[in-house]
User: What shape does this take?
Amino acid sequence: MGGWALRRQAAHVGERRPDPAFFLLFGKSMTWNLLVIQALNGLQYGVLLFLLAAGLTLVLGVMNFVNLAHGSLYMLGAYIAAAVFARSNSFILAGLAAVLGTLLIGAIIERTTLRTFYARGHLDQVLATFGLILFFNEAVRIIWGQSPVYMAAPDAFSGTIDLLGSSYPSYRVLVIVVGLMMGGGLYLLIHHTRVGMLIRAGATNAQMVSVLGVDIQFLNTLLFGLGAAMAGLSGMMAAPIFAVQPGMGDNVLIAIIVVIVIGGIGSVRGAFYGALIVGVVDTVGRIYLPLLLRQVAERTIADAAGPALASMLIYLFMAVVLAVRPQGLFPARR
Amino acid sequence: MRHMLRLLGFAVGIAFVVSATAQQPIKIGFVASLSSSLGALGQDMHDAFMLVVERNKGRLGGVPVQILVEDDQLKPEVATQIIDKLIDKEKVPIITGITGSNIMMAIHKKVVDKGVFLIGSNAGPSPIVGAQCSPYYFHSATENGQRAEAVGKYAADKGYRRVYAMAPNFQAGTDTVAGFKRYYKHPLIEEVYTPLNQLDFQAELAQLSAAKPDAVYIFYPGSFGVQFVRQWRQAGLSGKIPLLSTSTVDGINLPALQDSAIGVGDGSFWGPEFENPASRQFVAEFEKKHKRIPSQYAAAAYDSALLLDSAIAKVKGNVADKKAFMAALKAADFRSVRGTFKFNHNNFPIQDFYLLEVAKDSRGRYTLKTGPKTMPAAQDAYHTQCPMK
Assistant: This one.
């Protein structure tokens, strides 16, 4: 590899290291393989974000309803999965319970509470769903306590696989596969089924759809339940990686909203690409920005500024998108 | 929950006011982060403190007490409001608890300047240990960096040459890594500080694994610990690289970690398998009541209640005599769960530190086994900056 000669030459020339881009690719702890691994980590994070963002963007785009409690459904999915897993020791059963459970809970809160807020302003919806967050956080605290609960990865996916010379957690691969399958399934559902057609029609003109004799209320419940089930699924997928604890949904909410804004509100395709972009930008930026900064600034300054800058990265990206393309990068086709 | 706890505390208080006839109860403000990401720590502190109060039938030092339980939600602005209310409205002479260092920094001066006794049982940020020490402040845990010193010493003794450190990017994170470096003299090959809201460490673990360290030192308290250690295990690193930690694996998160944490090292002043009568009694009673193994946070809060119990008894309930109460607290005349306990001139304990290791106990539960005593009778690094004698 040509890089070798160049690097050795640079080492002879003096204390100043070669330019950042070069070092990024050929530096000691930064190899191509590692970059690919990190991109894969970004993809995996993006897929997890997509599972969450898809449900939220559907509810927001199609029903024009702001549901801050989406993170709570993610939390409930994780708790239900952990509880079922603890009793049955079956990952599949835990997954089914999480999906069906959150679908049911989603449908119930839609029927009992949220329905009355459709006609109201967004601020009222924010208040009501914020109340739901508090309610669900307290509810799980009363039922399961404040301490995190346990949920293991299934035995078949608790090890690592060999990837480009380094070991990669096999559960992360499962997350990627499930997420991509979910994305594909959702595409088929929305574009190639009757329900999907009605959802798209409802998004364009809800009144017209209901005049044509479609039960729009039922459609709303179904849609909300679908969004909730996807949140539940991602909560269940996240449970073996993260700590299952009260308020775990609050942290992810901000990242999901960034995804939706970047992708375009109401667009599942946008949520998909937006999530992948945010996942990769955040992960790769977080790792490589501080290392890059070290090449151009003092180590102490770089170490202080690097992580701060890296955590701003996705928000900066969102700001740029909002300025240049306020409708998002992949807006819903209307 | 917060309201329920407050109500409960109130009810306990009322019950004892009624039964104690003439004697006015001493009001004690118990402030901790009962919700938020450190909520489990605050809960353990609360449960352990109340264990002593309930065992003594609502009395400390033979005098009825009314415990006013408050949740600061790990938000400094909430904490300062609580403190105002406790001091100005409730007129409490004693405040105890305090889970987060950010909370301690926000309220410490406010409390001690008013001549109210503050008995900290967890957060020990370096400024209040040194230059800002106060005769009204007593501490039943450790200075933030001290547990890390014990681990640094262990790493140095073990002869690890290439150590990689990771911690969340906030005061306690940088304090602990600084503590680690105080006794571990080799330069660390990398120090990584992750944002406080970061949940996924897979990317950092890939970098870490590529750097091939001899050992890794981490500080990830509460639920952070669950996430880190589990992902560490999933990345296939456990058993390959020794993982040393402080405040990362304990009674709070071991039930959520189980097998993932086996073999992880932890530096602390106390572990649940300590062989002294006070510790055995504490662990047995705590487990009986709460069905879980207590953490070091619980241990320090339990000791703070015993400390108050001993000091209030010494002054026969007259905590208004501040000089006498100060001397009574300073005497630390109680049987600590860590065996020996005495206050340094800055009112922080002089105590032993150990390296503990995660293992299964006789009943098959995951716990911390007591390992080597790495720092006997240790004083904190900042005590010389404290002008008190």
About this structure: Chain A has one domain: 21-324.
